[in-house]
Amino acid sequence: MNKCLQCGKCCQAIPFPLTKKVLMEEENPAESVRFILRYWKRVSAKKASVILDNDKLFSNFLYYECSLFNKESGLCGIHNDKPSVCADYPYYGKSPEEYASQPDNIIYSKCGYLNE
Ligand code: SF4
Ligand code: SF4
Predict the structure, then answer these.
(1) 60 is in which domain, residue-wise?
(2) pLDDT in tens for each of the 116 residues of the chain?
(3) Does residue 67 fall inside a structural domain?
(4) What's the gap in Å between 99 CA and the centre of ligand 2?
(5) Residue 95 within a domain
(6) Is 112 a member of any domain?
(7) Which of 5, 40, 68 best tests ligand 2's pocket when mutated (most atoms within 8 Å of CB)?
C-alpha cells in the first residue's frame, strides 16, 4: 500500500523520546525543535494507547499530540507548510522496505505506509 490512510494517529499520539524541558535547554534549537516546542503537547500513555487502538507503546518514548491537527477534518492544518519532521515521516530518507524491516521502527502498526 505504502500510502497515508489519513487516520490521523501519527498526529495525535506522536512517539518522541525527549521531554520539552530537555528541548528547551538547547542553545540553538533546530527548526524542528522550535516547531515541537510550539505545537506539540504531551498526552498520557493511557490516552495514547486509546488513540492507537491499544497498539504497542514504545517504552523509551513519550507521546505528544499536535495542536495543528484538525480533529474535524482529520487532516493536518498546515499540510503544504509542514516541517521536515512531519513531511519526511515515516521513512526519513530510507526506503519503505528498509524502514519496515527495522526492529525499532516506531510507526503505528496499522499505518498505511507499513501495510500491504
Ligand atoms: S499513521 Fe500512517 S496512515 Fe495514519 S495518518 Fe499517519 S501516516 Fe497516514
Ligand atoms: S504539523 Fe501536521 S503533520 Fe505535523 S504533527 Fe502537526 S498535524 Fe501532524
Answers:
(1) 9-78
(2) 678 899 999 999 999 999 999 999 999 999 889 999 999 999 999 999 999 999 888 888 999 999 999 999 999 999 899 888 888 887 778 777 777 777 667 788 888 887 66
(3) yes
(4) 20
(5) no
(6) no
(7) 68
